[in-house]
Amino acid sequence: MYISLVLMGVALCGAYVAAWYRTRRARRLLAGLPTYPELPFFGNVHRFFGGGEHLLQTLADLSEKADEKNLPFLLWVGPCPVLMFNGGEDVKAVTNAFIEKPYYYRFGRPWLGNGLVTGPGSIWKHNIKNLSGSFNSSVVDGYQAVFNAQAQKLVENMKKEVGAEPFDAMHKYLAYTTLETVCQTALGVPQISDSIVTTEYYEAFNTAVLLLIKRGLNLLQHFDWVYQLTPSYRQLMKCIGIIHNVSETVINRRKLEWEEKNKSGAKDKELDPSETRFKSFLDILLEVSERDESMTLDQLKAEVDTIIVGGQETVATTLFYCLLMIGCNNDVQNKLYEEFKGIFGDSKRPVQKGDLTQMKYCEAVIQETLRLYPPVPAVMRYADKDLKLNSCIVPKDTACGINAWGGGRSRRCWGPDVLQYRPERWLDSDLNHTHATYLLAFSYGRRSCIGKKYAMSFLKTALAYCVREFHITSEAEKLKLRVDLALRPVSGHLIRVHLR
Ligand code: HEM
Hints:
By secondary structure, the chain is of the alpha+beta class. It has one domain (2-499): CATH 1.10.630.10. The chain is built from 23 helices and ten strands. The protein binds protoporphyrin IX containing FE. The site of protoporphyrin IX containing FE has 25 residues, from α6, α16 and α23. It is a peripheral membrane protein.
């Protein structure tokens, strides 16, 4: 025990000195940027302790300071610099220059392998060429029947809550709805709910997310060899085993079907559309694997798991905040209802592709929600070379934060009513390219979200079903939030539904 502690102490000191030596040039180049006073050894790391609420306060505080000065905010994690960018030309330059991510993205690799989110830049660069169009309009349009069925199921479930106590829509319904939707469209399995999203899978999925967050927030566990000694590691591996087992089973079955189809000499190499009635993400990957040897079975699994993770909580969280916001902004809800009435009349018919393009106000509601409540408040890039910006030089080896919370709440960009929930601002013809660089919920530039079109189509569909059926109320003006990778509520997050 004593020897282990001494060894750990020596390793930590060694790592600190090496990192300090490597980043002394950064200290010189970044002097003058807004920052916090540093503690010896820890830098500003103590600002991240104290739980998710405290973390959000820190993020909000540094975002405001950066906005006031119109400069990136500098943090020191031990001896290592982290620059936080709120938006504007800097974000554009940083996201286009850097495709590497800091080391802690590796924590997700036991689950997501070298998929798009967690893979190293070189692998991402190769695969994105094949996958960037995976969720283009024609593919996503093919998912509309799944979106409708899932939205219908959601409102049927929520009807149980009519006249009941306020409830937590996220955990009771939304998380499950989006997990089913994304599994179904990613894997292309009909009747997925019975066979795939079992309670065991759902629980393993949620626990794995929480364990990864826990690791991220515990600096000591950043060392692989420390983490591998913990019970959390064993629990994580168990959860990942359950999740992988599901995706592997489906992938293997689908791959066999695909190979048999090819052997039988079918001219059209797409799977029989009658089986799924849409082209799943897995189908797209199988097509890629035919012409690109680097799309191995492992890589294919990594990409499928990535899509499921990338699309599940983000979409559920956005829908959740949309419901909360319209629940405490009656005027907004009325306008939304009127828009749906204009499109559907009194009918509760399924949403069609053409309806989605007419939902302009609905789109504004989603954008405004994402501006104030980005599900992923910040993402990171790693500077693998120097980059000259107008505001500073980003030195090689600096971590760069793309701060969606700060961008959406930048007074400089959005004006004095920045904190007001006002979807109308998105209908304003004065909105321009600069505003786009401050709406960072989907990140920006290279390695930004490829599921934006998917997310918008599903969210519009789900909102149409919910608002046609229910009048929603919430007390979200009392909403309290925390950050633990995702933006999560602490209180003020319950809703009530009333039949229209
Ligand atoms: C409102 C919903 C969504 C939000 C707010 C969102 C947000 C984001 C963000 C912030 C990133 C950048 C991650 C990083 O740099 O670390 C990202 C990447 C990604 N998202 Fe989304 N996402 C959403 C929906 C979806 C959906 C529905 C899918 C797929 C079905 C998806 C798939 C992905 C993938 C594959 C990446 C990695 C892209 C790359 O690195 O090239 N996302 N998303």
